[in-house]
Amino acid sequence: FEGMALVELAKRTGEGIASLQNILVNVGEKVDSEFDPISIDVAELVAMEVGANVRRLHSEEGAKLERRPPVVTVMGHVDHGKTSLLDALRQTSVAAKEAGGITQHVGAFVVAMPSGASITFLDTPGHAAFSAMRARGAAVTDIVVLVVAADDGVMPQTLEAMAHAKAANVPIVVAINKCDKPSADPEKVRIQLCSEGLSLEEMGGDVQVVEVSATNKIGLDKLEEALLLQAELMDLKARVDGPAHAYVVEARLDRGRGPLATAIVRSGTLVCGQHIVVGAEWGRIRAIRDMMGKVTELAGPAMPVEIEGIRGLPMAGDDITVVDSEERARMLSVGRKKRLEEERLKNLNEGRMETSGTDE
Ligand code: GDP
Ligand code: MG
Description:
By secondary structure, the chain is of the alpha+beta class. It has helices spanning 6-13, 17-26, 40-49, 82-91, 94-98, 127-135, 156-167, 186-195, 220-234, 326-359; strands at residues 4-5, 37-38, 65-67, 71-76, 108-112, 118-122, 143-149, 172-177, 209-211, 237-239, 245-254, 258-267, 270-271, 275-278, 281-289, 295-296, 298-299, 304-310, 319-323.
């Protein structure tokens, strides 16, 4: 595939030629005529910038897809044991096993099963992070673990979490936690969940329920198995070869190393040294570290890594796109920042107009 003319791209994206031309200038491309071919990479970038679904105009088709681990988020009502459950699961993770329990915090961890399969857990529980990411278009989570305390039952945030998962079309696996407590009543929780519209497996539905105790570390293996079964049903696959598309799940500023982003690759392979655009920021990958802090050259699908070399601090949910050159990365970033600023001003003005309207 050699490329396509601007007219064709306009047709496919539904955008005007002028606005596409504007973006082309932003990414450092010059076209003399709307009939001149532009390279497929540039066409992809432009399509991406207008939010059109023309991404991977070429490579996804016919690309070799491989099974990938599920990415799991834990949600549930406050104090029902999300953090405790994540801690308990983390102790069953590769890092905990190999490094004797010493894990640095990177926002995600991987649990490897004896079968060779693995599960990636996002470390930020709660639906705030989940909806923040989703609001930014980041479909990072494949499965939600809904934690419900066996002694407390379904509570407002349990229902919120259910609603979020449903809106995102993400399947739920229920973990009834605190089953060690004498006051635990998992049957009651099941009935509550059913009456809230969750079709549990025991009742002929497709939502698995596992009884656990985060404190006593009971049922964790069952939960992990349930997640793998769910993942298998979903037949999660990703392209491994070719340029990566990834999401930021967490970002922080390190005094010595600068901005650090924990990212999860959705497809393709991220390679150290590549130029990237991260949300409205840009940079060149100076180092990739795995969740044990070990430097690695590559990152494939569903593997959580920490990326060093971004020039500004990105936000959770920002997408990471690999581009050809520093120049292009910089220009895309400038273009995005400009657009963000325009949107901000527009929102500000609209707010002002509304206020002045009520004044009169
Ligand atoms: P979060 O707000 O959902 O993150 O809940 P936490 O993980 O902070 O747990 C809230 C409280 O419940 C803490 O005091 C935990 O020690 C306790 N807790 C969590 N899991 C269990 C469990 O399986 N059994 C018992 N008995 N207590 C638990
Ligand atoms: Mg917590």
